[in-house]
């Protein structure tokens, strides 16, 4: 009996106090050696990795930890993928991808476990930060930082509370177990007769009642400890939260004052300064915007991908105005305008509007035209054709790999005019269109249509006499984080060539507008693009390096590698997204010898547009020029946009509100009709010139031009067009 009585009591003590085996936790620092892929020449190189506070950093040696970090990736936005027994990949979907190899499968699994735990915590911390409007990244606490000490204290308290909760769960299980046993003994006791068995049954009941009482006392003590701990720290956290709230209010007030002072000083400077006459005609290839250095790759020598000959044998310069007539043109080409009215200098308290937009989708927030430029998003989309000549040249290529280089350069060139374009384009109204007919000038014509309002989506179709077709559907998602504005284009772009039947597709990178509240606005492009040839399997991987003040590399850097379907590299690309791109054939043989072919250079350079004309390029200046014969839904006919271009901003704001209210009324009526028809509102609206189809080649679904627009223009028949203006 003694053995029976002591065994359960000993079990309770073991369960409540037994230490758990050590496992990686989200707050732990994890270190070790891994092999990191560097380039095609050096392959995998041994690096020292440190995982701490949701950040994975690496160094060449342990000795570098105190002074030189070679690269860091934030796990909050990273994807972790296992390739085989020892290899795994970490990518943040943007500018960083680490291909890593562990020394064994066991070591790889340890890293994967630690990374997943760290990622889970980082995602949770980011969600909490987003909810509060604070976008500060998590940084490792140091001995000199009060915030770091407070973080350690909170983490320690949370671990203690978690341990107490586990104790409560254990006590609960034991109470259920011993309570059931006690209930069975009592039921058996009621059913026996007074006699020899009575004494034995009473002893069993007594033992089980004792176990139940011990377990209950343990539960009561654990509850008391948990409650006391939670109450004590709850009061402290409430005080700390109130302090943080007060500090945030004071910070908002300070920022508002700074914004007002900055605006006042800027207006005073503009009024007192006379710009030199050369301002509107800077030299070709000049680069402005963000001062300082661009973002480099994480290691100095890891960018030396391949050997290639340096002799340029072909250069395509696009600095000339594509709108100018050709020398052999038989008929005169329309002379297009080269300037628009100067931008007025209106005062606007930016912070008073933007402080209520933190964390929200900006497409759903009405904004005054003071933030805009006098072009619609459909016209901005048409600006992708600024360097259409790259596609003309691609159509002539005999090699699909060389053609890929020109398509990739065209992909990058669509960002070349955005470096100073901080104005927001007008959100198109549902059903709004924009045509760009340059058939006689440049051999192409294009059509855009707004096919959805929420989410805003635009479809674009362009076709050229030189044998290529460009089509895209773009949906914009934007978030304001207090310090910057992120614009994430969603959707696909496709380019088809008639002669080769090559079918390319790619997506756009993220655009970030910095210094929203204080300072001069500047734009950065960052992320990665994969241009895929669905016919041959060729691929070009492009990397847009984000701006970094501490980088030693050029700003706005872009690098890329063109590979065939087997993953073999044939070309490398390098340059900047705002100025030029160069591509070189990979010539290194197994013996390290170079081939005879040289570097082929594709250059696009732009004249820096004058600030008083919104930094528009020569093409952009012509997009809103009134033209006869365009559809009544064309962006050129939009009244608020026209008023803004003419400098009548107060009237433009009033007209913009009228158009938005008119669109809301039409939308409500369409929703009522959809309810009557028992069909979703999205199915109730049909685009005029595009239809949604599944592309069998790329496997994507997008709006494709169904024809009829140019025929309607020739006939002057616009009966299908709605009254949106």
Automatic annotation (TrEMBL):
<feature type="region of interest" description="Disordered">
    <location>
        <begin position="279"/>
        <end position="336"/>
    </location>
</feature>
<feature type="domain" description="PH">
    <location>
        <begin position="27"/>
        <end position="120"/>
    </location>
</feature>
<feature type="region of interest" description="Disordered">
    <location>
        <begin position="626"/>
        <end position="679"/>
    </location>
</feature>
<keyword id="KW-0446">Lipid-binding</keyword>
<feature type="compositionally biased region" description="Acidic residues">
    <location>
        <begin position="297"/>
        <end position="314"/>
    </location>
</feature>
<dbReference type="GO" id="GO:0097038">
    <property type="term" value="C:perinuclear endoplasmic reticulum"/>
</dbReference>
<dbReference type="Pfam" id="PF01237">
    <property type="entry name" value="Oxysterol_BP"/>
</dbReference>
<keyword id="KW-0175">Coiled coil</keyword>
<feature type="coiled-coil region">
    <location>
        <begin position="241"/>
        <end position="268"/>
    </location>
</feature>
<dbReference type="InterPro" id="IPR037239">
    <property type="entry name" value="OSBP_sf"/>
</dbReference>
<dbReference type="InterPro" id="IPR011993">
    <property type="entry name" value="PH-like_dom_sf"/>
</dbReference>
<feature type="region of interest" description="Disordered">
    <location>
        <begin position="129"/>
        <end position="149"/>
    </location>
</feature>
<dbReference type="Pfam" id="PF00169">
    <property type="entry name" value="PH"/>
</dbReference>
<dbReference type="InterPro" id="IPR018494">
    <property type="entry name" value="Oxysterol-bd_CS"/>
</dbReference>
<dbReference type="InterPro" id="IPR001849">
    <property type="entry name" value="PH_domain"/>
</dbReference>
<dbReference type="GO" id="GO:0005886">
    <property type="term" value="C:plasma membrane"/>
</dbReference>
<keyword id="KW-0472">Membrane</keyword>
<keyword id="KW-0813">Transport</keyword>
<keyword id="KW-0597">Phosphoprotein</keyword>
<dbReference type="GO" id="GO:0032934">
    <property type="term" value="F:sterol binding"/>
</dbReference>
<dbReference type="GO" id="GO:0005829">
    <property type="term" value="C:cytosol"/>
</dbReference>
<keyword id="KW-0445">Lipid transport</keyword>
<dbReference type="GO" id="GO:0006869">
    <property type="term" value="P:lipid transport"/>
</dbReference>
<feature type="compositionally biased region" description="Basic and acidic residues">
    <location>
        <begin position="634"/>
        <end position="675"/>
    </location>
</feature>
<protein>
    <recommendedName>
        <fullName>Oxysterol-binding protein</fullName>
    </recommendedName>
</protein>
<dbReference type="InterPro" id="IPR000648">
    <property type="entry name" value="Oxysterol-bd"/>
</dbReference>
<comment type="similarity">
    <text>Belongs to the OSBP family.</text>
</comment>
